[in-house]
């Protein structure tokens, strides 16, 4: 079995590679060329364990994830991905699930920006300066010529390390600013990304600030979690979702639907945009909203690509079980 750690994975693929893999995953999803049950969630007080299996191509995969929102010295989201040969049942690879999740979730946000925002956007704001937020910004800066980034985090002590990691991986001309309040961040940004595990909205509940902006929510993955404020929905015509499971899983989808602010017909599968079954035209008179809760198929497709690239580059370490 091939074991791929963080160093091997980052040497094997780029963010652009992962985004191309995610396009293939959306095509598999739209054409129903996969098997994937709803993920299992186990709650341990405020901490969550998730099991995410999937079958596609020549592989089974299982991602085991832990989400510990109070972590300070470790990433909030951690895990591992096991890749198994579909023909023999033998384990092919064990991958660092923390890195894989960061890359593929970043690629999800990057694709949302690619398909749903104008090509000339220059500014992006991020709420939540954790591990997931880093990869969101790296993906956006891969797909757009961003010149200004605005950050907001409730724990200000996280800024220095986060900014240092950003500067190490972005062009020096990209300006990085700390916003005093979320409202300042929204007003300055063309694209707003939320990457938190908050149970209450992290964006300002202001009505007249959202039109002509793309809002990408990647944090809330349980019914009690919310990142979006009530005001965001008031002028929304639809929400793009990476999977209809978000309707059951995320408070950012369930909450407005339970209040009849939006209907299920206004939830548009993003796979239909990627496969050109839905044509999206960016509008300046309403917000464009994308909500992701992720799915195991994404992990499988990215893990397969990393496994194949690692073999070709002769990287990683083999172990016998």
Written account of the structure:
The protein has helices at residues 6-12, 15-30, 97-116, 131-143, 159-169, 182-188, 230-233, 245-249, 251-258, 270-274, 296-313, and strands at residues 2-4, 40-44, 47-56, 59-67, 77-85, 91-96, 123-127, 148-152, 175-178, 191-194, 214-217, 239-241, 267-269, 288-291, 317-318. Strands 9-8-7-10-11-14-12-13 form an eight-stranded parallel sheet, sandwiched between helices. The relative contact order is 0.19. The termini are close together. The chain is built from eleven helices and 15 strands. The protein is α/β, with parallel strands linked by helices and 321 residues long. It is 36% helix and 24% strand. Helix 2 crosses helix 11 (296-313) and helix 3 (97-116) packs across helix 4 (131-143). It folds into two domains: 2-101 and 296-318, 2-Layer Sandwich (ornithine cyclodeaminase, domain 1), CATH 3.30.1780.10; 107-291, Rossmann fold (3-Layer(aba) Sandwich), CATH 3.40.50.
Name some characteristics of this structure.
NAD(P)-bd_dom_sf; 11 helices; ODC_Mu_crystall; ODC_N; 321 residues; 8-stranded parallel sheet
Summarize the structure.
By secondary structure, this protein is an alpha/beta fold. It has helices at 6-12, 15-30, 97-116, 131-143, 159-169, 182-188, 230-233, 245-249, 251-258, 270-274, 296-313, and strands at residues 2-4, 40-44, 47-56, 59-67, 77-85, 91-96, 123-127, 148-152, 175-178, 191-194, 214-217, 239-241, 267-269, 288-291, 317-318. Strands 9-8-7-10-11-14-12-13 form an 8-stranded parallel β-sheet, with helices on both faces. Strands 2-3-4-5-6-1-15 form a 7-stranded mixed β-sheet.
